[in-house]
Amino acid sequence: MRKKIYFYISLNLLCLLFIIFVINLFGCTQREKIIEIGSQNVYSGEFKSYGQEQLVSMSLAAKELAPVIIGGYDHKISIVAKDDEGNPEKSFLVSQELIQEEVLGVIGSAFNATTKAAIPNYLEYNIPIITTSAPGDDLAKPGSNFFRVIISNNQVVENVAKFIINKIKPHNAVFIDDGSEYSVNFINFLSGTIKDNETKDFEIIKQYSLKPETEDYKLLAENLLLDGADLIFFCGEYNVLAKIATEARTVGVQSLFLTEKQSMSEGILQLAEPEFLEGIMSIIPQPPSLAMFSEDPKAIEFWRKFKDTASTIKGIDISEPGEFAPYAYDAFYVIIEAMKNANSILPEDYIDDLRNISYDGVTGKIEFDSSGNLKDPQSTVFIIKNGSWVRYQK
Which of 228, 239, 252, 293 is deepest in the core (most CB within 10 A)? Predict the structure, then answer.
């Protein structure tokens, strides 16, 4: 009798263990797999639109990509958004929080200081961080976990130098800054970049540094006439350029005027006569697919999808993409593409594939150099024709 009791007890225990094993096995095979991507940005205060446009862009990309098959498993995609308030100290803490939540990659932060504060924490855990709006050159270092899908400050100036040397091909030039720190640094770096290229047939005749509020623009124009340069490059506000161009053309200066993004404004067209502005050129740090008057199909489609997505997310105040929205969209795709190439969602596995990525996005071709900067980022050139800014074609 006892033997029968022991037998049934043993049989019941075996059955129970088998059921537990089956449940665990089924649970393991069916357990939901999720890729968590961090979105570190400003979600409150004056600059909250930065965070909102990033969140909408990432949400759109996640919706399009999920589920993604990696390592033979379907993965959902989750976005973990954290507000660093545009504050470096808060950024440091936010990066720690995202690490604790086991994110597998991060898009952010908005500014140079906040991005710089977060990088060391992510580096310690080898988690890639991709900024879509911080252009500071001190962020990028060889072999780092930092990546950037937007043109850097130095690359902005380098593209201007290339355009002058390779497209305009002047024999000589005059450079003018408006006295601001940005303008002075831009002109100095541009001068150094051109000199480093050892262009034998090109000379920078003179550099002028203006005081816009007290400047004698007529005297400046007379000096420019005496200089007789092929090219006048000005870095500064459009209202200052309008004064320079008016006086220069009035006294007979025939030089080509070239400027950068600060003067690329519709406002200049209201401040000077059309004949004084005709032919002024501006080179801006945006790829042709995104710059003004773009008819790029990918950009148009992104704009439409962004609007549709923004209307479905609670707490979002914006309805249209801002300047950096397409970069966040592409950055998200790049991370997932690297995971797919590596067949792993683990940062230590896919980071090398991210370094070697080649992806055609809304913002153009994305490839990284050894420091995490974009290879060969594009700029777009405009010219004033018949009283309007139009794309420069040559």
Answer: 239
- The per-residue DSSP string of 225-236 comes to HHHT-SEEEEES
* pLDDT at 16 exceeding the cut of 60: no
SS3 184: helix
* pLDDT tens by residue, 80-99: 999 999 999 999 999 999 99
For 269-324, where are the alpha helices, taking DSSP H only?
274-277, 297-310
CA gap 237, 65 in Å, rounded: 42
Q: Is the pLDDT of residue 392 over 50?
A: yes
Cα radius of gyration (the chain) = 28
Task: Report the b/e string of 141-177 with b at 16+ CB within 10 A.
Answer: eeebbbbbbbbbbebbbbbbbebbbeebebebbbbbb
Write out the two tokens for 318. 């914006």
Strand order in the sheet with 73-83: 68-70, 73-83, 33-41, 106-107, 129-131, 146-148
CA distance 94 to 146: 17
Name the average pLDDT for the chain. 93
What is the phi/psi pair of residue 174, to 5°? -120, 135
Number of H helices, E strands in the chain: 12, 15
Residues 238-263 pLDDT 10s: 999 999 999 999 999 999 999 999 99
Lay out the sheet containing 203-209: strands in order across.
203-209, 172-177, 231-235, 256-259, 281-284, 380-385, 388-391
> What is the distance of C-alpha 160 from the center of its chain?
18
Whether the pLDDT of residue 136 is over 80: the answer is yes
Rounded to 10°, the helix 181-196/153-163 angle is 60
Looking at residue 250, its amino acid is T
Cis-peptide into 67, omega within 30 deg: yes
Residues β-bridged to residue 359: 366
Average pLDDT score over residue span 353-377: 97
Spatial distance between the Cα atoms of 339 and 351, rounded to a whole number of angstroms: 8
Determine the Cα–Cα distance for residues 295 and 113; give it in Å rounded to an integer. 34
- Asked if 68 and 37 count as a contact pair (C-beta separation under 8 A), the reply is no
